[in-house]
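Let's do one together. I've listed all components of the complex below, 1011 residues spread over three lines.
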Amino acid sequence: MEFTLKPFIFYGFALMTIASALVVVTVRNIVHAAFSLMVTLFGVAGLYVFLQADFLAATQVIVYVGGILVLILFGVMMTSGRLEMRIHIERGQLLLGGVVALALLMLLLTVIANTPAWKNLTDDGTELPPTTERIGELILNGPFLLPFEVVSVLLLVALIGAALISRKEVRD
Amino acid sequence: MTLQHYLVISAILFTLGIFAVLTRRNAISILMGIELILNSCNLNFAAFSRFMTPPEDISGQVIAIFGIVLAAAEAAVFLAIILAIYREFGSIRPNEVDTLKG
Amino acid sequence: MVVPLISLILLCPLAAFAIFGLLGLGNRSFPRQDYLSTAAMLIGLVCSLLLLREVVPDPVPHTVKWISLGGVTFSMGFHLDSVTVIMLIVVTLVSSLVHIFSMGYMHGDPRYPRFFAYLSLFSFSMLFLVVSDNLLGIYIGWELVGLCSYLLIGFWFEKDSAANACKKAFLTTRVGDVGMFIGMMMLFTKFKTLSLYGEGGIFALAASLNTEDMVWLSIAGVLIFCGAIGKSAQVPLHTWLPDAMEGPTPVSALIHAATMVAAGVYLTARMFPILTETSSLVIAYIGGITALIAATIAIVRFDIKRVLAYSTISQLGYMMLGIGAGSYVAGLFHLTTHAFFKALLFLGSGSVIHAFHAMHAHGHDDEHDHAHDDHDAHGNQDLVHAHGSEIPPDQDMRNMGGLRHKMPITFVTMLIATLSISGVPFVFSGFWSKDAILGGVLGRAMEWNSVHHYLLFGIALFAAGITAFYMFRLIFMTFFGEPRNQEMHDMAHESPMSMTVPLLILAVLSLPIVNVLWFNENYVKPPEQPHLHAPQHAHISPDIKTDKAKMTLSLFGISEAVAAEEGGNDTHGAHVDEGHHGHGPAHTIAMVLSIFVAGLGILLSWMFYHRRSLSAESVATTFRPLYNLFWHKYYFDEFYDGVLVALTVWKARLFAQFDGTIVDGIVNGVGTVTRDILAVFIGIFDNRVVDGLVNRVAEVTWAIGGRVRRIQTGAIQTYLFVVLAGIVLLILIFRVL
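Okay, and this is what the predicted structure of the assembly comes out as:
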């Protein structure tokens, strides 16, 4: 059995992702939460790499970290005064939410543990060729051409819709 | 690294997202929770694609890419709505936006 | 060919009227409606002539189902036998000629197109009545011609007299129609059908009735005849027809002389198979009395149209008498000949009136003023007194005289018609038909040894003499002698071609050329009368039957035909033979007597009104009461006015009083009780129970709503929490269970 760094790195990414996500949902300062979210997104991107999804990992970093997270920070800037930076939390709500989330987690873990088809599927560690070319092939010249076009239209619609909703209302 | 590793990570991310959506009293925090949920979904897609299908088949990854795109669109619209709400109510606390209260 | 031809005959005039009606919706009218209507009638005439060949001995009705009501199906259809065809020809022919005549007569009238449209509608209705094979169709046509009569009598409705006359005509005929409807319903309740012919028809079913039903059948027959009394202006419902002369003269010729009034006779003839001896006798008596009364009234009239109107009533009485006496063919034969010569007389009188009328410049101003005077004089009793005691100057025979040089065509044609109606022998059609009726009545009298029929024969004979007298009085006063009114005489002139040509055609038709149809025993077959039985004392011997066949007027070359008919009918012992030239000795006697009385009538007329060797005035003075009776038309109008109208008014007052005191009292009493007593209790109940219930329900709903609405916090996180908790719970439940 060859000793490799791989499991350590994997568990490191996993730990980083979960811990930073925990920070996201618990920290009081919203700016801290946003930065913590960035760490989570990087962690997920690392997990993608372990799944040999190189293009996906790159997209995750570019779109999430470069786009969505910046967007969120802009949202924070435009809506929150200094007082709003601290997230108000009610104790009772925290308790109820915690119970439901925990129940959900238990449920999911039970399902994951008890589903026979998912057992004993290990990563044999074979190197797969880069995916970018094949993804481009699938999207632009394959079965995903139509969904791709639809998603393009969806993005356009979202763009226009977001612009329309967020602009200052013009009163006649 | 088995499939179940990824699924457990994904499940924890999902639950944390749900928890954020349920408990945070700030619309942008809720958005962050939603992003966590979406990430857990995409991770699932990628993991199933890796373990449950032949190595050449990477359509799961393509679906995950679509998921990212949808998340981007969702985030844009969400923030636009938050801006509109902020202008209208002067706050983005979801419990204060309750015009539809019975 | 039968159905298309009849459909064409019916649809052409209907289309002509429909075009007027459709354009009328847009408040316009087709300026050449006259050509349209006339063309429609001429097409009808051609089709009718074509139908002559289509007649079969035992016709099958062409029917379609019309409406079904609770198991009873009413059908509509045509029945085409020889009588139908002859009626079709008569109607279309007279109608066509009247259309042509009207183009001249009505020229310049402000409602000229409407007049022709009404004529078309009338023609359609009359033809529909004629061809219908069931009582319902006949009744529909019957009421439609009544409506057209109303519209056309009141065509110049600016005149009060015309407006009153049309109302009177409509209401009077309605009295008879009610009887007819009851009769129809009696037949319907018995037989569950209104069809006349065929297997399930009334005639076939009525033939199988036994003797217990005879009273019932007699009543039904008389009630249906009531319709004919009204429509054919028989006594006592005859008073509307003279007043109907307020309509334009072509209308009088077409509707009130030739066709519509003859519809009553036609109906009676159609009902021939269900007549019993009682109903036959009623019909015969009413016909005979009408013939006599109308003839005597006609003697003293001075209005040329009124004379002709009473003459029409009298002749219709003859037809009824003929049918009532069992002379089916004779009655219808007289209907045909009368249609032509009476239409001719009316159109001739129209020509005379038109000649005088020219001085009024086609305006009716003169009559207008006159009508107003009349109205003032009579007050609001005009409905009954619509006849008006004053005569329009252009219709007053006392203003006429010596017109034969001015209007030669009118004179000659009217003279032919007068000779025909008076019964001058051999070359005029009226002689044959009237003689057929007289012979038929006398034959029935001799055969049955019946006092009734001897009496009726006497009446008819006397009326025939009077007819000759008053008709020649008309001719002498109008066309002979010196002009009585020089101013009007100077204005008179012969009428235009469109008016004289129809006169000439009708004059030709007053010669016995139509007789061919009636004397062909293969063509017209009288229907059997299964319920008509000779009285016990009748002496029907086969000898007489054969004798009379031999003795029949061989001089006219028709004896063989008649003999054949006699032979054919002999099989039915109780069946009574046809009147026309059937009863040899009876016929000879009747003919000799009728020639004699006609000659006497003409002679007296000549002495009174032409040679003036006798003075009408002195005779009138001598028989003052009788003269008054005739002059006042047997006081029928006075009777109706004094008794029926007064009775109705008195009755109405009584009912009004009853209504005002008792009915209103009850209603008001109930109202008071309801308002003051019942309403209080209902109010309490309403306030306590009903309102309480409603309020409780509202309060409960309010309370529940107030609690439930708190679920809707408006906070999305609460909703999401509930949703997720629900999902977790559901999954847990499904895993556990």
